[in-house]
Structure formats: C-alpha cells, structure tokens
From TrEMBL:
Tree of life domain: Bacteria
Entry keywords, A to Z: Membrane, Transmembrane, Transmembrane helix
Protein name as it appears in the record: DUF817 domain-containing protein
Transmembrane region(s): 45-65, 71-91, 98-115, 135-156, 168-187, 193-212, 219-241, 261-279
C-alpha cells in the first residue's frame, strides 16, 4: 500500500489544533453535516492559498498601484509572485518535493504563454523588464498556482481512487492535449476528440476523499469539471484586473467566453497527470470501500 502523503510540519500543527476544536462536534445529524461542509470549505481555501493570494495581489494592483511608479506594474507582480512562493516553502506550506512539480507547471505554462501570445490568442501590457519577449514572468506563476492547488489538495483531502487508469495511458493523453494547444493553429482542433478520450479513460474512476470524520466519494470526471469552472471564474477576475486580455476584451472588459471551460478542463488533465508522477494514485482501504457502499462515514 502507498503511504498517505504527510502534511507539512505547519499543516500538522494546524490540523492537530483544528481536530481539538472539532472533537466535540456531533457525529450524525444536521450539525455534523454542517461541520463537514465547513471543514471542506476551509481545506479548499487552504489548498488555494497560493493562487488566492496572488489573485488578490493582481486585483489590488489594478485598484491601487500608481501609474507613475518607478517599478513597472508587471515587474511588481513578478516580484510579489516570487515572494509568495518563497513564503510557501520557507513557511512549510509546501514541500520541496511539491515545489518541483510547481516549477514544472511554471515551465510548461511559460512555454505555452510564449507561443499563445505570439499567435495573438491573448496579450499582456508591454511594461516592465522581467519578461521573456511579450510575456511577463509572473504569467508562469498563474500555472504554478494550479499546480500548487493540485498537490496540496491531494494531501489535505487524503485522496484515493478506485479504477484509476494506467499512468502510461494518462501520460499519452496528457501529451496529446498539451500538443493540441499548439497544433490546432495549423491543423484540425482535436479538443473534442481529446475530451472523449478523457471521458473514456477516466469515466469509471471514483475519487474517495476526507473532510473531517467521514470518507466520501464522487466521480473523478465531476471533480475535473468542478475545478475547471473554478479556474474559469478566477480567469474572469484576472482578466478584469488586467493580468492579461483576450483580443475581444481590448475595447472593454467582458466575461471570458464559456467555451474556455473546455480548455481548462483539458488543462486539468495535464495537471493531474503531472501530480500523479509525484503522488501515485492510491486505492481506498477495503473498510472504506465497504462503508461507502453502505453509506456509512468512516472515522
């Protein structure tokens, strides 16, 4: 059996303190469900701490960063993103093992940004010196935020998977998805073929997870879709704040088209596959499977 990924030292202390506060919570009834939901929300917020903090900085920069500042806004955002990442590691919110995945997300995202801005898919303000071509360096941190969330949520919710597909097959699909983000500009866009491949490959997979006392489960595809919607909402905030703009938003901001959900859904697959090479998917314990089949929460 693959061991559960350990909490960082800071997270372990927070977890112990939270459990002391929650010991008096009822095990059944409406209050028990409210407690579980509350823990779920707090754990999700904790998993999103990198992305939420950086998004808050981007929004604050739009509202209050002076236009005549000596340091360009884009450079200030890059420095802020680096500072947040340093605090995550030094503060024991992220392990060095996870940092490797986050850095890989950064590289993968930056390569895509260089290409996409070159072909005009979206654009950034032209200020600042901390950039590669037309891409400010903070852009890679937006992809890193997705990676940070993925590796942290895996630990915080003690994720397990039933009928997870073979990892080499998932890697093949992930590579095809990433390639399609580039090749669809010259050949036919295969995104819906790739969506179908994802449904075929992960359609039978069930995700098992913990909030507080209980172990719950849901179809993994539903989890993919939920996170894609969440990222799309964050993208709307980021474009409103001017982190980047699509060509149709240059004349005036408007919500990002819902068609982008398919892109974020497919990007989720690339993210999941990268994370599984650090934290291999684990099967749920037999007692948890038996209890879940009977609708019983396992402490």
């Amino acid at each position: 059996m693959i061991a559960r990924p350990a909490l960082t030292s800071l997270e372990a202390r927070i977890d112990a303190s939270a459990n002391r506060l929650l010991r008096s919570a009822p095990a059944t009834g409406a209050r028990a469900r409210l407690v579980e939901f509350g823990v779920f929300v707090l754990k999700q917020a904790w998993a999103c701490v990198f992305g939420a903090t950086f998004l808050a900085v981007v929004l604050a920069a739009k509202l209050w960063y002076p236009d005549d500042a000596a340091l360009a806004r884009n450079d200030a955002l890059t420095i802020a993103a680096i500072a947040i990442q340093v605090v995550m590691v030094v503060g024991r919110l992220e392990t060095l093992r996870e940092l490797r995945v986050v850095v890989l997300f950064h590289v993968v995202g930056t390569v895509m940004e260089l290409f996409k801005t070159d072909v005009g898919s979206w654009m950034y303000a032209a200020d600042g010196v901390l950039r590669i071509g037309g891409v400010p360096l903070y852009s890679g941190f937006m992809y890193a935020a997705v990676g940070s969330y993925m590796v942290r949520v895996y630990r915080l919710f003690d994720l397990r998977f039933s009928r997870y597909p073979r990892r080499w097959l998932t890697a093949v699909v992930a590579v095809a998805i990433y390639a399609n983000f580039f090749t669809h500009h010259w050949i036919v866009d295969l995104r819906w073929v790739l969506v179908a491949a994802v449904v075929l490959l992960w359609g039978r997979t069930t995700m098992h997870f913990r909030f507080f006392r209980g172990t719950f489960r849901m179809p993994l595809l539903l989890a993919f879709a939920g996170v894609a919607v969440f990222i799309w909402l964050a993208e709307n905030i980021a474009t409103y704040a001017g982190a980047w703009l699509y060509p149709s938003q240059v004349g005036g901001w408007h919500p990002v088209d819902v068609s982008k959900l398919s892109s974020w859904f497919l990007l989720m697959i690339v993210s999941v596959v990268l994370v599984t090479w650090v934290y291999p998917p684990r099967e749920p314990d037999r007692v948890e499977l038996s209890a879940a089949d009977k609708g019983i929460a396992v402490p």
